[in-house]
Amino acid sequence: MAKFYITTPIFYVNDKPHVGHAYTVIVADVLARYHRMRGDEVFYLTGTDEHGVKIQEIAEKQGKQPKELADGISAKFRLAWDTLNISNDGFMRTTDAHHEDAVRYALSEMYKQEWIYKGSYEALYCVGCEQYKMKSELVEGKCTDHNREPEVHSEEAYLFKLSHFAPEILKRIKSEKIKILPVTRHNEMVSFLELEGLNDIAISRRKEKVAWGIELPFDPNHTTYVWVDAFLNYITGLGWPKDKTRMEKFWPANVQLMSKDILRVHATIWQAILLALGLETSQTLFIHGFFTVDGQKMSKSLGNVVDPMEIAQTYGADVLRYHLMREISFGSDGDFSLRRLEERHESDLANGIGNLVARVLGMAEKYTGGKVPEITASVFSNVWDAYGSHFEKFQPDQALSAVWGFITDVDKFIDTEQPWVLAKTDTERLNFDLYILLESLRHLGRLVWPFMPSTAEKIFTQLGLPDELKVGYDEGKKWGGLQPGTRVTKGEGLFPRLIPNP
After folding, report:
1. Pairing of strands 219-224, 204-206
2. Are 80 and 120 in contact (CB under 8 A)?
3. Active-site residue, from 242, 249, 297, 393
4. Are 12 and 146 in contact (CB under 8 A)?
5. Residue 21 catalytic?
6. How far apart are CA 64 and CA 77, in angstroms?
7. DSSP 3-state assignment of 151?
8. Is 146 a known active-site residue?
9. Which residue of 18, 417, 456, 493 lies most exposed, with the fewest beta carbons within 10 A?
10. b vs e for 383-416, b when ≥16 Cβ sit within 10 Å of the residue's Cβ?
């Protein structure tokens, strides 16, 4: 049995989740569910990042303690992921006691090995990003993400010898021992490391300035830099350093998902920390793009921040999951449009998969009394080959396109064979065709399950197959799995139309 470990970034608790966060966890969920269907041993980790000066400042403005603020926002993330049917195996909070203990252990080990040393540091620091910036990253002296000038930090600090690890990190990225996808992001990191290299970085702040953080175990007057704390969640979520069994089984992660604004710190600081701790570096970093909403940058000031909870409660979680996976090419920037979501709902879901399932089950009820015909037949599609190939290349959007190609093929088969005519002229051919159509629905349920789990489960229920997902991947994709005589039921439509037909 192969293992598959997938992570999302842990999301900062400065505000409730938005559709950009939802996109990352849904992609991760689709990949995790696919690998579970394959029979792999899967661990899927997400969570919340809860320390740092930004949380401290927001809590002060709201008259709350930082932990109180973090508790409330973290709970909103959990609720949102439950609503979106996210099947994560772990939810990491950086305020969890075992995580804080592990961070202190990691800092102690790196300090003992002299990867951390005391000094002073002067640099440009963007509070919004919680990152140090180089002048080359600024436009007119401002951070492009937050449109504000970074602060100049010059103070006593503990520094991490990031520069020492630059040659090894570059070597691993170029050889693809650390694989960065898509290739444009790989090229971007190679160019950055070759042209600019890496400098040692401050990994602490004086506690009187940033009290809301994990104290350095070797100097209680300092708290640790939030990124060092956050990165370690990817291994503390596996129980490191105490749970060696799970760590040895799953690390390194097969794929770590993130947006392009945090690639650089993941490809450099995170890899250097792993090397300093004597651990394997990341296997694959997959970088997706940014979101706009109706062509505009998503922001509070524009009032266009999309709440995934509201979308899921209005249209259904599977509709949002489908729309995000189908509309946006994985690895590219994407645009969210409620109009496009509604169009997809009507064309692809209500008139597409929903209509197909209703047509086939309706014909089974009408022509065979709601039973699978006493005949088996092979079918016409090699959809599974394309489907699996796209998943192995981290192309879930292309896998979903292959599924909709299959739906088109089944619709064409119905139109060509015309079962309503065969019912009057050729019962044997009718039964042959109906078996193919019902068996096609079984395959369709399996194909859409990673993307739309609730929809798949409804299809299996209507086909009288409550335990279908217990069937192994290789066995399940063979034709002929639907047993003759099985009782099928049309049931309610999968996707009621938003505007009913007149």
Report:
1. antiparallel
2. no
3. 297
4. no
5. yes
6. 19
7. strand
8. yes
9. 493
10. bbebbbebbeebbbbbbbbbbbebbeebeebbee
pLDDT tens column, 314-367? 999 999 999 999 998 888 888 899 999 999 999 999 999 999 999 999 999 999
> How do residues 368-394 score in pLDDT, each as one tens digit?
999 999 887 776 678 999 999 999 999
126 is an active site residue:
yes
Residue 390 Cα distances to 11, 176, 325, 433, angstroms: 28, 20, 13, 29
pTM for the model: 0.93
The one-character DSSP state at 418 is -
Residue type, 184: T
Residue 222 appears among annotated catalytic residues:
no
Amino acid at 21: H
Looking at 7-158, list the stretches that DSSP marks H as alpha helix, in order from N- to C-terminal side: 19-37, 53-62, 66-83, 97-112
Catalytic residue among 16, 51, 54, 126: 126
Which residue intervals of 199-290 are DSSP H helices?
A: 226-231, 233-236, 244-250, 263-265, 271-276
- Determine the pLDDT at residue 502: 43
| Residue 223 structure tokens | 């708290």
Q: Is 143 a catalytic residue?
A: yes
Residue 414: C-alpha distances to residues 325, 332, 356, 410, 418 (Å): 27, 36, 9, 6, 6
> Which amino acid type is present at position 299?
S
Which helix (H) or strand (E) segment holds residue 453: the answer is helix 453-462
Mean pLDDT of the chain: 93
Task: Specify the length of the chain in residues.
Answer: 502
Give residue 89's pLDDT: 98
Amino acid letter at 64? Answer: K
- Pick the catalytic residue: 135, 300, 424, 470? 300
Q: Residue 138: its pLDDT value, please?
A: 82
Q: Are 131 and 227 in contact (CB under 8 A)?
A: yes
Residue 99 known to be catalytic: no
Omega before residue 252 within 30° of 0, cis: yes
Distance CA 394, CA 256 (A): 12
Q: What is the C-alpha separation between 356 and 350, in angstroms, rounded?
A: 9
The total of other beta-carbon atoms located within 10 Å of residue 481's CB is 16
Nearest in space to 18 (alpha carbons), one of 388, 252, 265, 303 = 303
Q: How far apart are CA 473 and CA 443, in angstroms?
A: 11
Catalytic residue status for 297: yes
Question: φ, ψ for residue 10 (rounded to 5)?
Answer: -85, 135
Confidence band, pLDDT 50/70/90 cuts, at residue 41: very high
The amino acid present at 88, given as its one-letter code, is N
pLDDT band per the 50, 70, 90 thresholds, residue 499: low
* Strands 334-336 and 291-293, bridge-based pairing: parallel
